Automatic annotation (TrEMBL):
Name of a matching Pfam family: Ku
Subunit details: Homodimer. Interacts with LigD.
Originating species: Streptomyces broussonetiae
Region (Disordered): 254-350
Protein name per UniProt: Non-homologous end joining protein Ku
Biased composition (Low complexity): 298-332
Length: 350
């Protein structure tokens, strides 16, 4: 890991064992930041720190902390005041308990940090704590003070390092009251089976393969405008209709998921579960007939036209054959009459 500036120096209190450590940010933001500008001329918009009493801009070195009382009075608080707080966690990460990891509600998770050993003397106790956490399959719950307030933390092993997740205090997590639907909804077993099939079809994903597509798209826009080119346009999305049939929507989702993974359902479509409703997908509103239904009708009409055009040709051929047959019969009759006349002529002459 590349060297990162520590944001806090202190020690882990593990019973009577003290482990000097440095607190390092475990995450970094890759989001693209924008500056505020004047849209008319592109000038930067800046904020200046001005003292209200003197009405002048002040430097960072002149700025301190103050607490505003209920009557509006500002009570100055210095860094020395905070350093003398009667708290054991002022410069110490005090471990208070060890609990199974699944006891921690993910809603409490906050910022993440790495705890780096503070020098060679810290190597042995640091490794001891790390291996103890590994063997117990537990996490350590600790209290520490950072940026002017006491916080709750969870220590766990990440690779060969100890990481600490800041935790919200339990009273800082809101209860999910009024979030779930009020109306009583019954989910059928067939719908759950299809939902399970969809989950199995989508499968798992390696989180390392996921990336921020929005940030990449913004970078493309910035690069295009910097080069004096028109920014790329997003393709138009097909408008989705309202989901009126949950079973049909689930079946279509399973089918689409299989196609995206290069799989094919049996007979080209997803089978309905036994005892299904057998309802088709809802028709589009607006009185327009489905395009899928028109296609067979067009084919049938085309087939009829083709058959109709071929019949006259067959009729003409039959008529020609009949005419030829009559012509042949007429010639035979003429030849017979001619032979009879010759025979009669011979008798008369005799």
């Amino acid at each position: 890991m590349r060297l990162v500036r520590s944001i806090w120096n202190g020690a882990i209190s593990f019973g009577l064992v003290s482990i000097p450590i440095k607190l390092v940010n475990a995450t970094e933001s890759h989001s693209i930041s924008f500056r505020q500008i004047h849209t008319e001329d592109g000038g930067r918009i800046r904020y200046r720190k001005v003292c209200e009493l003197e009405e002048r801009e002040v430097t960072q070195s002149e700025i301190g902390k103050g607490y505003e009382d209920a009557d509006g009075t500002i009570i100055p608080i210095t860094d020395e005041d905070l350093a003398r707080l009667p708290l054991p966690t002022a410069r110490t990460i005090e471990i208070v308990a060890f609990v199974p990891g699944d006891r921690i509600d993910p809603l409490q998770m906050d910022a993440a940090y790495y705890l780096a050993a503070g020098g060679a003397p810290a190597a042995k106790p640091y490794t001891l704590l790390r291996e103890a956490l590994k063997r117990s399959n537990k996490v350590a719950i600790a209290k520490f003070a950072l940026r002017g307030r006491e916080r709750l933390g969870m220590l766990r092993v990440v690779g060969d390092a100890i990481a600490m997740h800041g935790l919200l205090w339990p009273d800082e997590v809101r209860a999910p009251e009024g979030v779930a639907p009020d109306a009583g909804v019954t989910v059928r077993d067939k719908e759950l089976d299809l939902a399970d099939a969809l989950m199995d079809t989508l499968g798992e994903v390696d989180l390392a393969d996921l990336h921020d597509e929005y940030r990449e798209a913004v970078e493309e826009v910035i690069a295009a405008k910097a080069a004096g080119e028109a920014p790329p346009e997003a393709p138009e999305r097909a408008e989705g209709g309202k989901v009126l049939d949950l079973m049909a929507a689930l079946e279509n989702s399973v089918r689409a998921a299989k196609e995206s993974r290069g799989e094919e359902a049996e007979s080209g479509e997803v089978r309905r579960l036994p005892g299904g409703t057998g309802r088709a997908a809802p028709k589009e509103t607006g009185g327009k007939k489905s395009t899928a239904k028109k296609a067979p009708a067009k084919k049938t009409a085309a087939a009829r036209k083709s058959t109709a055009t071929k019949k006259p040709a067959a009729g003409k051929s039959t008529a020609k054959k009949a005419a030829a047959s009559k012509s042949g019969q007429a010639k035979k009759q003429t030849q017979k009459k001619s032979t009879a006349k010759k025979a009669a002529s011979r008798k008369r002459s005799a």
